[in-house]
Amino acid sequence: MNEFTHKIATLGDIPAIEKLMTLSINQLLGPLLTKDQLEASFDSMGLDDQLIKDETYFMIYSKNIFVGCGGWSNRETLFGGNHTPNRDDQFLDPKKDSARIRAMYTHPDWTRKGVGSLVMSLGEEAAKKLGFKKCELMATQSGILLYKTQGYEPIEDVLYKAKSGKTVPMVRMEKDI
Asked: Which pLDDT does position 127 carry in this prediction?
């Protein structure tokens, strides 16, 4: 079993995070989608620097190798990057809302080794400390299996429509924590 370490991402980490995101989207999600769906994915995914500013975004390392990232949020936005039009930075109410698991990306050489599971565990534990009882996420086609194995249940199929008009299928999922 790999031994991972993690740190809270800073704004200075953005170039490394963006490089990993692009690699992960192209190599892990890309083979599961059409060219048009992959293009739409880049509209629906990417860096949300609010997570970094909120100190809720984790960078995962194996020794000194950056192998994955992801985080959680107590804000309304469920998915997307700074460029995605569905943004809402309003805070959630832990008594009635689900915390968000957000922006998870793994280096293609490190899939199925526990990176994503660790990110989810870190996010869920932090959300619990703020009083949240549930977590919610928007799954891409490459993430659905991981989320199901971590106890997330599908609650809605979504066909995301990009600014270009191209679409990509996604699944909204939720878990009691």
From this structure: 98
161 beta partners: 167
Inform me whether the pLDDT recorded for 39 exceeds 80: yes
CB atoms under 10 Å from CB of 47, counted, come to 20
Q: Which domains does the chain have, with CATH numbers?
A: 4-176 (3.40.630.30)
Question: What is the C-alpha separation between 101 and 168, in angstroms, rounded?
Answer: 19
Name the β-bridge partners of 7. Answer: 59
The answer to whether residues 158 and 138 touch, using CB atoms and an 8 Å cutoff, is yes
The average confidence (pLDDT) of the chain is 96
**Residue linked to tokens 């048009």:** 36
Distance of alpha carbon 158 from the chain centroid: 16
Cβ-based neighbour number of residue 2 at 10 Å: 12
Q: How many CB atoms lie within 10 A of CB 176?
A: 10
